[in-house]
From TrEMBL:
Family indicated by similarity: Belongs to the chromate ion transporter (CHR) (TC 2.A.51) family.
Keywords, comma-separated and alphabetical: Cell membrane, Membrane, Transmembrane, Transmembrane helix
Entry keyword Nuclease: no
Native source species: Ureibacillus manganicus DSM 26584
Membrane topology field: Multi-pass membrane protein
Location within or outside the cell: Cell membrane
Source superkingdom: Bacteria
GO terms of molecular function: chromate transmembrane transporter activity
Pfam families for this protein: Chromate_transp
NCBIfam families for this protein: 2A51
Entry GO CC: plasma membrane
Protein name (Swiss-Prot/TrEMBL): ChrA protein
Chain segments annotated as transmembrane: 81-104, 116-136, 148-179, 199-220, 232-250, 293-318, 330-347, 353-371, 378-395
Amino acid sequence: MSMKKLSLKTLFEILFISTRLGLTSFGGPTAHLGYFHEEYVRRRKWIDEKSYTELVALCQFLPGPSSSQVGIGIGVVRGGIIGGIISFLGFTMPSVIALIIFALAVDGLNLGEAGWIHGLKLVAVAVVAHAVLGMAKNLAPDLTRKAIVLFGLSVALLWETAYSQIGIILFAAVLGFFIYRSNQDSGEPSTHFPISKRFGAICLTLFFGLLIALPILREVTKLEWVAVFDSVYRAGSLVFGGGHVVLPLLQSEFVPSGWVSEEAFLAGYGVTQAVPGPLFTFAAYLGAVMNGWVGGLLATLAIFLPAFLLVFGALPFWNQLRQNNKIKGAFIGVNAAVVGILIAAFYKPIFTTSVFLPIDFAFAAVLFSMLQFWKCPPWVVVLTGVVSGIVLQYINF
């Protein structure tokens, strides 16, 4: 979609849908991918199934917040670079605003035991199960791809490191290349990412340039805000595996330096679990504790800037690679491996941290049925989950 064809209606549509997702997407990055799949692939068809899964694989391979990067990529499909930025703002700013408010007004609030939070975790169980079933049906139709799914599932569960997903995807790509390189029925993704190679190269250069220049600037200037930006940017640049992995890095930067106390850090971590959206927005809380809302916005920019630069930098080159007949087989293997990775993430941590009792499983089954069989809109399922969680809080089985 060119800039000339972009309309305010399209941009407002992107903003409205992404903001709604930002207000209702609880459960972590895997759950977010489930919400995205339901909204963008099934309901609105902004991106086709193959392209969506390949985009997920690319963002799993890149460092940074994978669900936010997928959201940016889908925004690019719909509205170019501006659409990607707006999609990010809609999905991320609700949690950023909530965490800045918490940092300014709430001291040590513990929402971990709230019933409605538990209900939202059950919604995440239903959403991810629904998404994984649909993706498995389309992307692993034969026994070979089912075997790759099983491989990805097993390795992801048994080899829990930040680099396991990269290893799975690379191995599956090699398998797919050799097994399916002569496959003539791999399908042609209809999605195009309108970013030029020149712009992509500039973004990648800026990504690595900041990674090198910021530590030097930090030493030369001795300014606190430069030091904070450097620490947070580096955390967002070098983390594989999502928000839970970035937290220890942020703690090692903020607590020993005295920027944030251990108590404030742990309180913010608890609050972050209670808000929708990406866990990387925890940086907004830390920045706000240090220097009010200005510090919160600066930390938000620093933690997510690498994600933008990497996605904008990788998409134009990946866009060409996936159209190469020699590479299509590799993507077939990667697509199946991603399904396995998502099933593993569905079991742990989503299922294991949400379903403790038979009544939990029963409510999750109801929520799943609302999506799978009754075709209820996601917001209805979210609302039902909130009510279910409150009810469960007062029922003893």
